[in-house]
Structure formats: structure tokens, C-alpha cells
Amino acid sequence: MRKTAVILVHGIGEQRPMDTLWSFIDAAWSKDRSLVAGYDNTVYSKPDVTSDNFELRRVTTRYFDPPDPRRVDFFEYYWAHMMIGNTVAGIGRWIASLFFRSPQSIPRAYLPYWIAGWLVGLAITIAIVAWQLLSGDEADHRLWWTLLPGLIGPALTSVIVGMLVPYVGDAARYLRAEPDNVEARQRIRAGGVELLRKLTESGEYDRIVLVGHSLGSVIAYDILTQAWAQLDPLRLQALHAAGSPLLERLTALEKAGAVLEAARRGGDSALEETALPAWRNAQRAYRRALAGVPEAPWLVSDLVTLGSPLGKADLLLADDAAAFERRKNRREFPVDPPLFEYWSERNRQFSYPEGKGARIPHHAAPFAPTVWTNHWFPTSLLVLGDPISGPVARHFGAGVKDVKLPGKRLRFQHLDYWTRTPAQETTPAVEALRQALNLRDLDE
Fold this sequence. Notes:
Elements: E1 3-9, H1 19-30, E2 43-47, E3 57-61, E4 72-77, H2 88-99, H3 111-134, H4 138-175, H5 179-201, E5 205-213, H6 215-229, H7 233-239, H8 245-266, H9 269-291, E6 300-306, H10 313-316, H11 321-329, E7 342-343, E8 348-349, E9 351-352, E10 360-361, E11 371-376, E12 379-380, E13 384-385, H12 393-396, E14 401-404, H13 428-437
Parallel strand pairs: 1-4, 1-5, 5-6, 6-11, 11-14
Antiparallel strand pairs: 2-3, 3-4, 7-8, 9-10, 12-13
Helix pairs in contact: 2-4, 5-6, 8-9
């Protein structure tokens, strides 16, 4: 009996291998009574033969309760060791690239952060100048300037080295394609693509769920993008021969996508609300058909993003919103539903060549078979809630299901997507996570 593989891509910071995965498994599996009884929730730590990193383990479960009993293997895609070498200078260049922009290029949703950043910088500058001008005796003035570095230097160094470099540094290096960053970005993406390839070709699995938290969600999106683009088009064309079940599923998928796109373009929210589950079910049907062929080329059923900065993609991944739209239209950033190859009253396809014969989805269509769910907490007072996250569908298409989680105004919640206190059996965020993982592979 084949199994489901769940891959967790961790977020920023100098994470230790497996720490994030164990807490994730506890929430996603061990305490989920809809899958397994409390007395039968044992998991087993086994060697991870898909990784060259001996620090990593594969965590496998028992069979979950009927119907459709199956096992799940949990993996952590660990990338923190590939990001060693963050520098304050690199962080400074990244922050400068975000703030030294024309106000017209800042999306309205992020303008308060841009203004607040400039106000803070201006306030610090004014305070320093005022202190110098208003300080009393010149000798006393020199004394303070002599003592000040000794007083604040250790504290400032601790903050920069302990927090800014390992955390903000990861984002600065991965999100900005500078020469110094390209090698790390390449290694991280290539390692993820290789992991997907090994799991797909192992023959053990018929479904893979990819989960990304924080910056890990951007990495997961990139891995998915590159893995799909490397599929053999000739083999796909052979599988999608005229009259084949796969082509029939693809045709049905394109029809569902066209309805969803038409609803979004026409501003028909009621139609969009009903078209979204129909689209997602058509994605699942197409992926199941792909997974059912001999030596299946694609098994990734779901992308689940948690606390994702992709909600700010127009600011973080491009110079401005117009540049971001151009890159989507050039198919550098895949969208959901995929960008349609043909859009006319007669023919609406994101596959090619045009017509009714054998055809395949284009190279930027990983979300033909892959369902995307995005969880986010609202932000309050600029820095509380989860200011890193946000809705993704407005940037990446109507096929993304954005789930807004109940927030707490006076709490920073970027780490709350699966955490629980010892007294909590579950939380709304954990329940939403279990539904998104959909380990029983149910339709909407």
C-alpha cells in the first residue's frame, strides 16, 4: 500500500534540524482524533534515505483509522545550513532596496510601513543632531561620546548578531537575487527539487503534500515551480494522447478554470465562491489521474503556505507592482489557475498546442494538478498579529484558497500556525492546518 509524504519547509533563523518538524507532527497527526485514536498515535523516527544530511530523519506513522487506511511519512526540507554567511551589509542593501523607492511604487497596503520606517529613521537622526546641539559643556560632550559606545555597543551588537543577521539575513539573501546570493538560492532550490524527484521515483508514495512556513513558503513555491518545469514534455504528451483519461481530466480542469477566471474578471463574487471548490476538485481529479499512470511524473497534490510573505509578493519579488505583473505574464511566477495559453469564446486553454488533439499544460502550470491553500493572521498596530503574512490570491490568482485565521490584537502570531499550549488539545489554526493537509485526500 502506498503512502502520503508530507514535506515541511521551515522558516527563517538558525533552525536546528528536526526541531520544527516534531512540533508540526504533534499538531498535524498525533493529536488529530479524526485520524487516529490517542492510544494508537505512535510515530517512528527512521533514517531518511532521500537526504544526504545525516541530521535528518523520516518520521512515519501507523495506519490511520478507516476508511482508506494509509500511512504518512513526514520529512523536513532543511535549508538553514545553506544560508550561512549572512552579513549586516547584505541586510542593509536589502532594506535600502525596500525603502529607497518612489512612494508611487509602494503598494497601498504597505505604505504605512514605508512611512513608519522613514519616520523612525528621521526621528533617530533628529535626536542625534539635537543631542549634539543641546549638550552642555564641550568637555562633558566629549565624555558622553566616549562613554556612549561602551554603554550601548554590547547591547547593539547582541541585537544585530543575535537577531538581525540570522533572521532578517535569510530573507535578505533569499529574496534578492544579487551575485553574492545566487549560489545559496540555487543550492536551496536544487535540493528541494531533488527531494521531490527522489520521493516521486521511489514508488512508495502516491501523494506528496508540500508545506512552507514564513520564508519557507517562498522556497516551497520556488521548488514547485522548478520541479514542474523540469518534467519531460514528450512523456507528458504521450500520456495526454487524444481520448486518454488524462486529457479528459485536463479538459474538465480547463473548463473549471475558465469559469473561475471569468467570475474573477467580471467581479462576480457569488459565482467565484461556488467556482473555487469546483476548480479545486477538478485539480484533485487531474492529479489523481496523473498519479495513477505507471511511473507517475507528478505526485504533489497540495501546497500549503503558512504566514507567507508571498502576500507581499508585489513588493518583495519585484521592483514595483507593474514589474511583478510583467513577470507573471512572462510566466516567471506561476499563478493559480495557470495563465491561459488561449482565451477566446471558442477556446480557453492553458495547454498547448491549440486544438482537440494531444496537448499538455505549459511550463508555468504547476497549479494544474496542485491545490494551493494559504493561512494568515490579520495584522494589528503594524507589528502585532502576523505582519509577515497576508492573503495571496490577489497576487497569484483566484484558485488560491486564502484562510484568514482568528487573530489576537496584542500578540505576535507568526509562530502560532500549529503551536499549542499544554492545556490546549487544539486551536482554530491547528484545525485549519489539518483541513488544509487533508490527509484523507477528500474533495471540497
